[in-house]
Fold this protein.
Amino acid sequence: MTEGLRRQIVELASVHSGLKNVVEHDAETIVSGTLLFEASADGLETIKESFEIELMIPHDFPETLPRVKETAGRIDTRYEHRNPSGTLCLAVPIEQRRVLLEQPTLLGCVNRLVVPYLYGYCFWKKHGRHPFDEAAHGHEGILRHYMDTFSLRDDLSALAVISFLLEHGYRGHHDCPCGSGLRVKICHGQALLALHQQHTPQTLRGDFIAVFDLCFAKFQNGQISFPQRMRLQLARLLKIVSK
Amino acid sequence: MTIDIRKYSEFLEQTASEIDIPPGKYQDAVDRYQAVGRWLEEGTYSGSSGELIIYPQGSFRLGTVVRPIRGGIEASYDIDLVCELPLQKDRTTPQSVKLMVGDRLREHGTYRELLDPEGRRCWTLEYTEQDGVGFHLDVLPAILDGRGLLDTAIAITDKKGESYFWSASNPRGYGVWFDGKNAAAFARTAFEQKENIQRRASLIYSSIDKVPDQLVRTPLQRAIQLMKRHRDLRFNHHERIECAPISIIITTLAAHLYGNEPDVYSALSGIVGKLRAHAALVESGAIERSLATIGLIRRKPDGTWYIGNPVNPGENFADRWHEDNHARARAFFSWVDALQKDLLNILGETTPRLLKEHLSKALGATVVTKNFDVLIPPVSAIDAPRIHITNAAKPWRDV
C-alpha cells in the first residue's frame, strides 16, 4: 500500500468510523465495515441509513476506481443497478470519473459515489422511482452519456466525438467532431476538454469499443453507414485499441 | 422491546413478496409456457376435433407461488399447466392422451432436451435460466370431461406401474372459486399494486393496464404464501416429510376462512385462529358450533377425515389423514400451533437478535435478513456523517 492510500484510508475512517477493517492483498486493498450516513439532496427527503459495504481499492487508485459491494444481502434482487458480479453499479465509467475528480480521494469516492448510490437505492425502495434518474444498461448507457453531454442527435456523432478524443485528445483549432463545421474551441470546446481531462487511457478505450460495437451492430443491420473519412479513422483507431 | 403491528404486517408483506415470483420471472414463465402451448397446438393428435388449449393451474394460476426451498437453498419455481386435448373420453384412452403429448414434446429439438422421464400424471420440462433461477413446467395432459358447456371438469391421466387410468379434476372451476373468495380484497388493492409494479418494472410493462391481474396479491394470497413457506421449512428435515400439509388443503382452508381482513397480519391471524379452533377434532372432541356448522374439516362416523374440494365435494383432500394413527391430522394441527407461535406470538420476543433468529427459522434467513429493517430500524449512532448530495451520477449496469 502506498503512503498516499494509507493517508486516504485514515481520512475515510475519520469521517466514516464504521469503515475500519483494512486487509491488504497483492492487487488491491480491501476496506470494509458499516457505512452510516444521513444524506439529503435538493428538494428531496433526508435519509438516515447504514449499510455493510466492502471497497476493493486497486493499487493505482484513483486512476482505476474501487469496486464496491454491499455485503449483508440487503439490496433487493429487483434493483437493477448491480453488475453481473454483484458489485454496485455506481455510474457509467466516465461519469464515475467526472464525479470522482471533484474530490479525487477515497473519502470523495464514498461521499460522492457510494452514498448517493445507496441514498438512491433507499429512495427507490420507498417510492419505486429513482431520485437522480438512471442510465440505460450496458453500452447504450455509455452512448447516451455522450449524446446528453454534447446534445448530439445520433450515434455516429457520438462515435465521432470519442474517436476524436482517442486520436487527438483536445485540439482547439480542429473542426469540432460534432459536425457543426465550427472549430472546437468555439463549439464543444469546454465539454471536450472536460472529457479529455476525466478520461484515463483505459476508460477512453473502453468507451470507444462500447460505442463502436453499438454502431457496428447498426451498420451490419443496414441502419447506418460510415462516411468514407470516418472509415479510415476507425481503421486506424481499431488498430491502436486492439494492441 | 415493543413491535408495531402495522410494521410487522408490512414486514410480512415484504417477506412474502420476496418468496413470490418477481414480475420479470413471471413474464419469462408466461412466455415459455405460451411457446410450449403453441408447439402443442400445432401438433396433430389422432381422433382430435377442435383446438388444444393450455392454461396454468395451481399456485401459478392462484397467485400463491412460493419459491421452493430445498436443503435450505432457494430452488426452481414449479409451474403447473393443463394441456387440454380436444378428444372425447369414449374415443380415446388415458395412455394415448398421455403419450401423444409426450411424443409431440419430443418432436421439438429443445423440449426433447428439457424433458424429464415420464411422471405419474405430467410431463416435466426443466428450464435452467441464465440468472440461475430456473423453473420446471409440469404439463398435465387432459381432456374435457364436463356435463354441459359451462362445466369445466376435466379427466386427467394417471399411471400406476404400466397401466393408465383416468382421474377427475377441475382446476379451472377451482380457480374461479378461489377468485370469488379473493374478489373483494382484489378490487380494493389492484390499482395501487399495479401502479407500483409498473413503476418498478417499467421495462416489462409500459403502462398500468399491461400489468396482469395475476401479479396482484391480496392479504389472503400473502397469508397462503407465508403458510406454505413455513410449512416447507418446518417439514424440510422432519422425519415425516410425507405428513407435510399439502398446498391444496392450505389454500382451500385459508380461502374459506379469510374474512376480508385488510392486511397480512390480521388475515393470517384470523385464518390460523380458526384453524386452531378445529384441533379438538383429533381426539374426536367437540368444536365451536359455528365452525362445526360450516364443516370445513370433519370427522366421519368411521373416524376418517373429510376436507372437500369446493368444486367437487366428492373429492376428499384429507382421504389419508386417518392412516398411521392420524399422523397427517396430528402433523397438520401441530403445524398450525407452530404458525401461531412462530409468526403471530412475536410480541413476546425480548431482543431484536432473538426475534430475527426465530423469524429466520420460520421463514428463511435470506428473506428475513433482507427485510428485517422494516421491523426494527438498525441502531444508528447519533453522529451519522451528514452528506448533501449534488450533481449525483446516474446508476448504471454493465452487461
